Amino acid sequence: AVSLLVAGxxxxxxxxxxxxxxxxxxxxxxxxxxxxxxxxxxxxxxIYCSIPAANTAFKIGKAVLAEYEGK
Length: 71
Known about the structure:
The chain has helices at residues 2-15, 18-30, 35-48, 51-70. It is an all-alpha fold.
């Protein structure tokens, strides 16, 4: 399940599907991915998808993680 989430997140970043990426980050956290694992996906996306796309993904991920830390 985690490998599917990783693959899905990279595809969403590459395509610029930001709303869907947010949903996938929520799903990843619910399914046991750690914040560090999600950050690693975003870091790798800088190489394969572009730095601007990775920066947007990090911004979205940070917002989602803040929601989870606030609960």
